Amino acid sequence: MARYDSATVFGFSSEEWQEMREEMRRTLAEVAREHRTISYGELVRRVSSGRLSARSAALTRLLGEVCEIEDHMRGTMLGSVVVRADTGEPGAGYFRHAAELGRDVKDPHAFWREEVERVWAVWERECRSGGKGAS
Q: Is 0.70 surpassed by the pTM of this model?
């Protein structure tokens, strides 16, 4: 798993970046426990207080980091619950990152549907077992 501990990332201090990443993990875990999705725009409003854009490279990197952490911890891409408001599915960057994590994305729609179902199932179990979520 990659380490992300540089002094500044996209103009954010290391502490700010880590706080946003952890807030994103908590938010996405909540969304997953509720068996729903969240748009990129709603996610940045909830996580960054307007400091990120829904189409920014910083958001893409944050989501990538969350997916890597969760893939390592739970074997799923938690970012699967983040979708475009216009299509209801993830953007192209999601599928590129999935491929980088070794996922088979030959049929992107089928892959995403299966992965989001897996994410929902994992977080349902976390909730039932009394897990604290994004730990």
A: yes
